Amino acid sequence: MEAPVAPGPERLFDSHRFPSDGFLLLALLLYAPVGLCLLVLRLFIGVHVFLVSCALPDSQLRRFIVRVMCSVLGLFVRQNDPRLRDGSVRVYIANHVTHFDHNVISLLTSCNTPALNGAPGFICWSRGFLELGAAGSRAELVDSLRVYSSHEGNAPLLLFPEEAATNGRAGLLRFSSWPFSIMDLVQPVALQVQRPLITVSVADSSWIAELLWTFFVPFTVYQVRYYLPPSLIWLSLLEGCVFRGSPHVASVSFTASSLAARPRVPSRVAGAGPSAAEDVRVTAMAQRVKEVLPHVPLEVISTDLAQTNCVDTTIANLLEGRVSFFPESKEATTDLPAPSTSQPATKHFAKSSVERHLSLQERKRALYDYARRRFAEKQAAARAGGSP
User: Which residues cross the membrane (predicted)?
Assistant: First the structure.
């Protein structure tokens, strides 16, 4: 069976909450009075669920009680063979569908999800996120999570390598690699979410709005599927084989950061017209630049490409300092040669401003030539790999 074709970003997100089918829309209108009554009733019940979850210590009894109470809220959680869950694993990874994926999985097994966005505080804690303090960089975050996971008394981590919620039907965002650098052994968890009448989640919708719609609909079913972890997880195997359980699901080359770099991605995707095609083209060009300059943030690359519309021009802008940025990591720049390797070492500071300018231009040109050679080599390797 042929691998599914990678979908464009317009298929990964739902931009409309209400159904387009006339019959379903009529059913939703007839159900609306009942849904409003359920919403008000479940708001009061939800407060009790929150208080119970805060009062009881983390245990199987607590998870059972809260899970039963959540069924009254219309949240039903089903899992396949729980014996596939490895109790020795310290890191779970899952695809991301809704704002409450971590809450749902915590009803089945003890786990914590670190807060990656937003300031720590009561809201962060009440939503069930683990507060690790403000991390200055992704490397510091990984180090903190490694220290956390090294303590046997702490609950396992639950991470979402997609870093953004999609509809989970057509494909997966390209996984970020940092969750796999915490532990060598991780357990993948696949999520499927279904509900009647309206879509599961809408792009750019807040977690409060999604919570209210969850209380409004009759029910929402979360299907959780575990997989036995191998001795060492490879990212490509994980994306291509484990989560792609359906022949209609494929992994794509887009990352959450590349989509976020474009202005108002969901609203542009909603049209699925020329603007969506343009987004795909810019994203593809940004990935090419990223291969040449891995230390440059993808957001910076995409922003400059939107203005230059040229890979070579963007590379030149980044190398020559016309676009300012903070490198993503120091390790990413270690493979770049010193620009002055092809030039005589400067023994002294030039007295003439003209000489200093020429020296700077020579160093820039050396680095630019290297980047162009690296880009050409990658393109030649890609063409060689694609040839029969």
Answer: 23-52
